Structures are given as C-alpha cells and as structure tokens.
Amino acid sequence: MSVVTRRDFLRISGVAAAGLTLSRLGFDLTPAQVYAAELRRDLRIKGAKETPTICCYCSVGCGILVSTDAKGKVINAEGDPDHPISEGALCAKGAASYQIAVNENRLTKVRYRAPYSDKWKEVSWEWALDKIAANVKRSRDASFAEKNAEGKVVNRTNGIASVGSAAMDNEECWLYSKMLRALGLVYIEHQARI
Amino acid sequence: MTNHYIDFRNADVILNMGGNVAENHPVSFKWIQEAKNRGAIFIHVDPRFTRTSTKADIFARLRSGTDIAFLGGMIKYILDNNLYDEFYVKNYTNASFMVNPKYSFDDGLFSGYDPSKRSYDASTWALEKDENGIPKRDMTLQDERCVFQLLKKHYSRYTLEKVTAITGTPQSDLEKVYAAYAATHAPDKAGTVLYAMGWTQHTVGVQNIRAMSIIQSLLGNMGIAGGGVNALRGESNVQGSTDAALLFHILPGYLPAPREQWQTLEDYHKTTPATKDPRSVNWWKNRPKYLASLLKAFYGDKATKENDFGYSWLPKLDKTQDASWLNLFDEMYKGTFTGFFAWGMNPACSSANAGKVRQALAKLDWMVNVNVFDSETGSFWKGPDTDPKKIKTEVFQLPCAAFMEKEGSISNSGRWMQWRSKCAHPPGDAMPDGEIMYDLFKKVQALYKKEKGSLPDPILNLKWDYETDGKFDVHKVAKEINGYFLEDIPEHPVDKKEYKKGTLVPSFVYLLDDGRTSSGNWIYCASYTEAGNMAVRRKKDDPTGLGLYPQWSWSWPVNRRIIYNRASVDLEGKPRNPNRALLKWDAENKKWVGDIPDGPAPPMGTEGVYPFIMKPDGVASIFGPGLKDGPFPEHYEPLECPIEKNLMSNQRINPVIKIFEGGPDTFATCDPRYPFVCTTYRVTEHWQTGVLTRWLPWLLETEPQMFCEISQELAKLRGIENGEKVFVESPRGKVWAIAIVTPRLKPFVIAGQTVHLVGIPWHFGWLHSKDVGVNANRLTPTVGDPNTMIPESKAFMVNVTKASQEPAKKAGKA
C-alpha cells in the first residue's frame, strides 16, 4: 500500500484547503492513520542496519551509509554525515546509488556468446571459468616468447591484452596486477590512460 | 594530488583550469565555497562557461588546446613583475642550476631533434655537475645559462598580445587572472590549482601540467597547506589502480616495468636513481628494497636470493616498447591478440576512435568482460551495423558485485585509502571481482600443473593463498600489500629493535632488499599493521586545525597528508606561513610537529637535506629534462586544429607525437569540411560511458540523451534551432545529437579569424537506453601525448549540420 507520511499529509492538506479535496489521494485518511503509516515506516527504518561505504563515482571519496532490512535487502543509501570530506552531502550520482543495488537490469547470470552466435546463453561459473582458463592457457602457450628478436629473455605472452579497472578495490587491483604479470602480459592498461 | 580535498579551504586563490569542478567533483566544491567564505578568490579558466564558472570571481575563456600559451604568459608576467617567491625559488627549486652549454631552443624546437625519428636526443638538456658530481649553481640567478635565465628567455616570447592571439582570451582577462594568481607568491599566501582531463587529454598534456608546476614552484606554492598541483581524478579508485600498476610501464609502487635490457636484478638496479649530492635524500635510492619485497609478495618462498627473487619470471618489454592504450588497440586491430580481458571497463565507448575499437574486438578469438551491467563492449557483436553471424569472437560476460556488495579499500585523489564495508550481498550469481580472479587463476594454475605448457614457473610459483576457511579473504590481500617480516629479525638495521617472523611491517622504512621482508606495494606499507587496518579508521581529531584528519582512514605515503611538506618551512624549520603551519621543528625535542614530515631529518639549515626527497637533486624542477618533448613547456597546436600556422613557431604540432596512419585513423587540419573545434566532457548526472548511470532511471531521466552544445552565433550560421537534431561529424565518424543553443559558448577570434567551439558529452551509447544517440568517442582521434599517450579528446575538428527537416525529438535546455 502507499505510505503517506505526516509531511505529505500536511502538504496535500494544505492544497486541499486551497480548494481541492482529499479525494485526489484516492483514499480517505485520518491523522491517526497517517500516524500509523509513519510509525510503520519508522519501525522499518529502526530495524534497518546501516553500513558505511565510499561512493563509486568520482575520486572525492564521499561517505555513503547504506541501509539494509532484516533480510539484507538494500532499502536506502544516503550521505554519511560523519564523513569529514562530504559531511553528509552527495551529488546526484552518489545520491542515486540505491538504484545500483536495486535494479532489474543488473547482470545476475554468467553469460556466454559463442562464435558467430546472435544471442547470449546463460552458463554456470564453473563452466565459464573452466573455459576461460583453457582459453588463457591456449593463447598464452601459442604466443609465449621466452626470447625476443634480439635474443634477450623476455618471458612474455604476446597474444593476450587486458584493460581494467579503476572500478575495483585496491586489493582487487593488486591481485589482478599480480595475476596478469604471472600470466606474462605486458599489454596491461586501464582508465588512468584515457 | 600533492594535497587533498579538504585542503582547498586553506587556499587564498584557487585556479580551476582544465576541469569543471562544480559539475564533475560536486561535493568537493564545498571546500572551495569554504575558502571563498574565508575571502579566497576562485578563478575558472575554460573553453566553456559551466556551473563552475558561475561561482568564479574571475572567469576567463580560452580556446581548447592553448593552455600552455595561457600559462606561459603567466610565467612571463610573474618574472617581469618580480612576483616570484625569491627564497623558495633559490633554495627549493633548480632555478639556480646550470644547464649544459649545448642546450638551445630555436623556432619551436629544442636542441637534439631528429626529424627522421620524430624524437629528441636529450643529452644536451642535462644539468651541469662539478667534478664531485654536485650540480653547479649560481645562487644570484644571473648567469645566462642558469635555469632561471633560460626560463626568462624562453617565456619572453609569450607576450600578452601573442597569448591573446593564440588563446582568444581578451588581454584584460589574462591580466586579471595573472595578477590574482601571482599574488600568492607571498609566503603567507597559498594558491592551488585543480585540474582534470581538460589538461591531460591533449598532445601536450604533460607539459600543460608542467607549466603549472613551474608556476607553483615560482610562487612557492608546493608542499604547503592550500597549495599544490591537484589532479581531480575521474574514478573513485583510479589513484589506487594506478598505484597497483594496472599500466604497462610500471610495477606496483611506481617501480619501472622490466625491459629486455635489464636481464637480471643487477641490471635493473643499475637504473636506481642516484645522486652524489649528500644534501639530496633521493628516496628512490631505496628502490631495490621495494622490488625485492614485491617479488617476495609475488612468489613467496619460491623467490630466493639465488634466483634473483624470481625477477626473470616477470615479463619484459622490448627496449623502447610502448604497450599503452592506443597502441594496445592498434595491435588488436592488426590481429596481434587472440585473447582479451575488459575487466570493469567499456572501451567500445571510452576509447578514443571507438569505431576502431569495435572493429578490433571482432579480431579476437575470445574476450572476457566483467561488469555490473551489460555494456557496449560485452555486446559489441550485436551493435549497430554489425552482423553477429560474421563475428568470431567468443564472449564471456561475468557479473560482478557493485561497490556496496563487497569489502575492500579505495584511494581517492587526495591519496586517502578509505575502507568500504560490505553492505549487502550481490544479486543472483554476481561475485566480487576479487573472488572471480581468485577462482580463475586457481583454475589456470591447475591446468598448468596438469598439462605443463610454456614456462609454467611464474604461474605455478605464484603465491596465491588468500583464503580463510576456504573462502577468499580480502584482508589477507590487504596485509600482503602492506607486507610481512618473513624471518625473525633480532636487531633491525633501522631501529635495532626485534621483529618477529610473520608480523606485519610497520612502514616501508623497515623493508629490506635481502628477501627478509615482503610488501606488495611499498607505498601502502603502514596501511595494515599489527595495530590494525588503518583504512577503516574514523576518528576526527584535527590537531593542526588544517583539516588533515590524520586518524580518518589512512593516506599514502606513511599517512602523510601533504606531500613535500618540508617546503612549507624555512631553513630553521619555522613555518613560512605561521597562520597555516603545516609542519614545524621542535628544536628542544628534536622532532617535527604537524603533518608527517617528508623524512625525519632535521631542518635544511645551510647544510641539511633538501625538501623534495623524491627528486634526485632534492629540489623542484623548473627545468625538467626528463620528458620526451622538452625541458620547458612550449605551445603547439592540437593535431587537428583550426589554424594553418602556430603563432609561436613554425612547429605547428608537438614534434614528437606518434602519428597513427591508415585504416580507421584519419585526420583533418584546417579542412573546410571540419571547421569547428570540438571538446568532449561530462555532466553531473552521468559518469564516464554511462556504464552504471545510464541504467539508473533517476539519472537517465535527468539527462536522457546525447546533445551538442553550440553558440548562438554558430546556430545562426548553420540555421540550427535549440532542440533540433544535428549531426556532428569528424573524419572518424558521425553521431547525432540534440542541439543545445546557448550563450554559454562563444566563438573565439584567433589571429583575426572566427573559430567556433562545440561541446559534446561522452556518456551515451547504443545499448541503453535506446535511440538516444551513440558515443562521442566515435569522433575522437587516435593520437596521444608523447609521454603518457593519453588521447587528445579535448581538441579535435568536427562539422555540425542540421539533421533534416524532421521536427526535433525533444526540446533541449538553454
């Protein structure tokens, strides 16, 4: 059902006093009902868990508090008032970060597009990672140069490249950097270059 | 950034140039507003009048791609009017250093140019040393071969008349900006500069920033509260990802990537920066400790003294190989790669000349794309004008967790490493990036163990053990990045104290080059110690009153909040600006008070150490011999430009840029088919290619589609009404957009000729939402800065035409 807060009620009532009727709400409301509705909302917020994180967009590093309900579902995201840089403020993007968590367009399945196919196929992690690992090995083994044209030891994989990513956490960036070098890649680039 | 966001409030003059801080880093603007409330002057210099300009005390408009002319004029103004900080210039910069007598500059070219190679032999740019290897200096700054006099001579050509003719900025505006900014040369005044991609995305990108660094050095604005050179970086963790070396030319912590000429660790260490000057700290002399510790973090017990700690397993570049972005996609276009990871990226939209990237992706055998939402890269095979039945590339699209669905740290532009807690679980099968790569590499290891293959050693010997109770544990990675003592150390050479095997290293000062320590990234050593995870801290004590918040999160290096802070004090260690004392020497207790100093050495005095500890000579480089395109910034036109002749010299473009030619790489200069200068930019409501924000209904509603900002004058010239559909076309491609006719843009008069500028955002793409226009990077050229290879997306040539007689799709905004 729609939840109408006291503030909404007063606002709409004010309009009503100016000549409209409460019927525009589509249902009848008494102040007691409004109070009850607000109480339900408050209780929901009270039961919520707030967790601090840092915004994912620009490099200011604003603090965000994400609220989740008892089931762990994200119900709100707002500026962290204790954060010394942002002091509770967020820009339009940061303020919309709730919609990253709750969004029907999120990728929730591993997808595979076969050569020359015109569609995605949903696959399992196990299947995809096995196949990627085999591809990595095939490309690496086929293109690996222990020595270059000058006869110098270079131990590099010439046939695989990587871009990404400033969108990852530090620990992930470092792990990725380590993995790519172990695989022998030298074509390693990301957002910082563009 | 040398400084940090809150520090903006400590400035007396703030210059935002090559950026649009109010719209692209909105929340940081509160600290500019705070400075303004305290009386600071805010200056915005930009080709476009933006929401940043509305807040500026002085707004100056310049033609895109002419920043060096603008700043060169400021250098001349400072020198002509004796508005430099003499103490600082003499003691803390290389202004007094003597330059090789063979150094010269003539008609746009520095000495040593080889036109057949399009490159310089920089040997004549060297600074002179005496018989003991100490730099020769003239402390009077009068010798005609000293840096100061060469600087004066170089910029004597940047007269107000000449600068105005090149930039299109009225002389009165130039003078207003120069006078206001130069006033910060007083020791008790601070000037800061905030820049972004408006400076980097040019074929003279590095020199744009160098020009400002020279100004900051002349005015004594480096290393002080309210000063510095501050890059407002575009991504939440692009600082951290750069620190972690997700770039071809470095290893974590800015160690150079190995090359063929350094076959052994000994060869590599021969390039360790050295100085014979005992007054220069030359911190990079410690590099061997950092590489040994990195290799121990990579290969664990398999890295031994006997095998050079596994150095030979690291891939080596060819002698001068440049594997940067534009070359990467050029190689992909030529069919060099069979496999490709686009991990947390959307290059089919974000890359310059994105049409070339789309063609290049079709030449791969396989691609892995990891993202939160679908993207133009993952789905390139079904893009416009593409027949999936002709595309061989096998594509894996892996769903990853969003930022609030995992824990880990990120580093903002001010180098603050802040911890993110996990707020919720990722939806469906989505997983954190770290877990994906962890599982993937385990599979690769298993395959090599089973089947062998080309040089399996670096794969099988890689230390890959970041699990707790069978699950990937990000804290184990964070600790590995910080580093461990790998053996009991009964008496550490640094403090003679005992350190136990398996404990975390307290700071990089304790790292060793003999394999007894590990550290995945030395600049992060001290971030996760036996005292705990520093990044998660939330205490808000502010002992200096300058907003350093030393116990909120953690800042690299060693929690230093303002880099080069020893330049804020005089020779005795007294703050040069007592009102904003960043650091001071407590002579009685023989220690520094304030920010974490750049090294514990006592004040410089007349025999102590120089303040710029990361520079081999210990001072700020007004003369910078280390770049590919010259020791002083010089104005050159963008590769694609509207005028036939560079008004400063006969070198129209930067003489050392790489020219990509053929296939999808075409260019047009002074071509009547492409008469208008175009620049790309961002809006507040979207981010980068829109790879996140285009999928969020709230944001898409506010900025729904591709548009093109044009001036009222250009609209009249082309018969375009506000809100009409137009085509924007470059030699690389053609996109449609909704015209926004606005007085915010104005034509320039350049050398007596009218030059129009148009602006387009780069947030949109064909995938989502539908029919809102495709991406701006279909138009941008494959050309980059010679030092960084960052593409020139901020100045290229286009045409703008009315699309048709059909009615406008939707009214735009004025």
The level of helicity of chain A is 25-40%
Radius of gyration of chain B: 27 Å
Which class do the helix and strand fractions of chain A yield? alpha+beta
Taken as a percent bin, the fraction of beta residues of chain B is 5-15%
Q: What kind of sheet is the major sheet of chain A?
A: 3 strands, antiparallel
Number of distinct helices of chain A: 6
Biggest sheet: strand arrangement of chain B: 25-27-26-31-24-30
Biggest sheet strand line-up of chain A: 1-2-3
The whole-number mean of residue pLDDT values of chain A reads: 86
Uncertain regions spanning at least 5 consecutive residues of chain B: none
Structural class of chain B: alpha/beta
Question: SSE string of chain A, helix = H, strand = E?
Answer: HHEEEHHEEHEEEHE
Unreliable residue runs of chain A: 1-26
**Largest sheet, strands/sense/barrel of chain B:** 6 strands, mixed
What's the average pLDDT of chain B? 97
**What's the assembly state of these chains?**
heterodimer
Please work out how many helical segments of chain B DSSP would assign.
21
Q: How many DSSP-defined strands of chain A?
A: 9
Name the shape of chain B in a single word.
globular
List keywords for this structure.
heterodimer, A: 194 residues, alpha+beta, three-stranded antiparallel β-sheet, two-stranded antiparallel sheet, 9 strands, 21% strand, disordered N terminus, B: 814 residues, alpha/beta, six-stranded mixed β-sheet, five-stranded parallel β-sheet, 15% strand, globular
Please explain how this structure is put together.
The complex is a heterodimer of chains A (194) and B (814). Chain A has 194 residues and is of the alpha+beta class. Chain A is 36% helix and 21% strand. Chain A has helices at 6-17, 31-46, 92-95, 98-101, 125-143, 170-183; strands at residues 49-54, 63-68, 74-79, 110-113, 121-123, 144-147, 153-157, 160-163, 188-189. In chain A, the strands form four sheets. A three-stranded antiparallel β-sheet of chain A has the order 1-2-3, with no helix packed on it. In chain A, strand 6 and strand 7 (153-157) form a beta hairpin. By secondary structure, chain B is an alpha/beta fold. In chain B, 22% of the residues lie in helices and 15% in strands. Chain B is built from 21 helices and 31 strands. In chain B, the strands form eleven sheets. A six-stranded mixed β-sheet of chain B has the order 25-27-26-31-24-30. In chain B, strands 3-2-1-8-9 form a five-stranded parallel β-sheet. In chain B, strand 2 (41-46), helix 3 and strand 3 (58-61) form a beta-alpha-beta unit. In chain B, helix 4 (67-80) packs parallel to helix 10 (205-218) and helix 14 (325-334) crosses helix 16. Chain B is globular and about 85 Å long. The model of chain B has no long low-confidence stretch (mean pLDDT 97). The chains are: A alpha+beta (194), B alpha/beta (814). The interface between A and B is large, with 115 and 169 residues. Strand 4 (110-113) of chain A pairs antiparallel with strand 14 (394-399) of chain B, so a sheet runs across the interface.
